Amino acid sequence: xxxxxxxxFPEMFEGILNxxxxxxxxxxxxxxxxLHNIRDYSTDKHRHVDDxxxxxxxxxxxxxxPIAACIEKLKAERTYQEIIFLTPDGQQLNQSIANRLxxxxxxxxxxxxxxxxxxxxxELFITKEISIGDYVVSGGELPAAVVCDAVxxxxxxxxxxxxxALSDSxxxxxxxxxxxxxPYDYKGHCVPDVLLSGNEKLINEWKFQKALERTKERRPDxxxxxxxxxxx
Length: 232
What we know:
The chain has helices spanning about 15, 20-25, 65-75, 95-100, 120-125, 140-150, 200-220, 220-230, and strands at about 1-5, 30-35, 50, 60, 80-90, 105-110, 130, 185, 190. By secondary structure, the protein is of the alpha/beta class. It folds into 2 domains: about 1-150, Alpha/beta knot (3-Layer(aba) Sandwich), CATH 3.40.1280.10; about 170-230, Trp Operon Repressor, Chain A (Orthogonal Bundle), CATH 1.10.1270. Helix 7 packs across helix 8. The two termini are about 35 Å apart.
């Protein structure tokens, strides 16, 4: 997979992309990240990429020309399955979206900043808009990093145990069940005996029941969404 990231602050990704799972994916040649500084596509001698919005609203807006120039250059070199804009008013990222994105060959992530980007970029180039939650952060860099991590870990060969991602929360509209490790007994708090039984059927039943209980308690909306989808 190739992931191109358009940003004003490529340095923000240096630690994130070169640590842990994302670094491992690159070392294995499974994923390739390419950072593109939007300022490099500005024709302004001072490399300005923003301007005041029409209509008198406060704040600054990223201009259309530098972003369009970068996107058009990349699109001329290869086909992108998705060109994604990270924005608070996009579709909220979930496991289903991450699963679908992990199957693509080339995706592009556009990180906004300031007040946002010229609306014409969204109309002309963007194929998907993603939010990581109902709140605002200073730019799209952190959301883009979240998308990268959520997607890349799902690609076969990235995790040492490929079945690990299948038991993550949200994979089946359920939160994950509790997990335990040594010691068996910590100050009287013991690991459930079923997990030491070696009976795979009973263990799986216990995990499902605990996942269901946890979801009902903490995220009943997930179960409501599943029922709604089944009825549609």
